[in-house]
Write a structure and sequence with these properties.
Layout lengths: L4 H4 L5 E7 L8 E8 L6 H6 L8 H16 L3 E8 L1 H7 L1 H15 L6 E5 L11 E4 L7 H24 L5 H4 L5 H10 L10 H8 L1
Parallel strand pairs: 1-4, 4-5
Antiparallel strand pairs: 1-2, 2-3
Length: 207
Amino acid sequence: MPDWKEEAKYQGLIAGIDEAGRGPWVGPVVAAAVTFHTHNINPILLNALNDSKKLSAKKREELYELLKQEAQNGKLNYGIGEASAQEIDDMNILQATFLAMRRAVEELPQIPDMAIIDGNRQPKKFPCPSITLIKGDATSYSVAAASIIAKVYRDRLMTELARQYPGYGFEKNAGYGTKSHIEGLQKFGITPEHRKSYRPIAEMLKA
C-alpha cells in the first residue's frame, strides 16, 4: 500500500505523476500531477488510495470526488494534461505521454520542486526535476492519487466520446481493442479520434 516515504526523500513541493490511456486505440492519453500540502488528509481517502488498476470503477469515482474535496479544502492541488490522438500519431505514444505530463504539471498553481513519475521512462525538458518510480502508484500517495485522477478523468472523456460515436462501446472499453470495439470498427469504420499509427487501425486504413 502507498505511504509518504518516497515524498519524504525530497525537499519542498513534491508532485506525483501518472498517466492513463497509453494502450487504447482511440482518444487522448491523459496525465495527472498531484501535490499534497499536508499529511492531514481524510483517513477514508488515505486508507483507500492505491494503484487505480486495483480498484473498482465505483471506488475510483468515490476517491476522485474525495480528492476534489480535499483540493477545495486547500490540502492538495492537481493538474490534468492531455495529448490528443493526433498528437499521439504525430510524435508516438511515449512522447505524447510526456507532453501530457508536462501539461499536467503546468496546470498546477505552483511548479513543484520534484516530480515522482510512475514507471521507468523519464521525460526530457520537464518543467521541474523528476525521478521515476516503478509501481509508484502502489507505493506513493501522490502517485496513487494521480493515477486515480488520470484514470477517472479519461474514463469520463471516453463516456463523452461514446455519446458522440455510439456503437463502439467506448463507455465500457475505454477505447481498448475489445470485441465490441472491433465490431464497431467493422460496422461504422474509423472515427477522427482513432489513433491511426496504432497497428490495428493502420491495417484497417490500408485495407
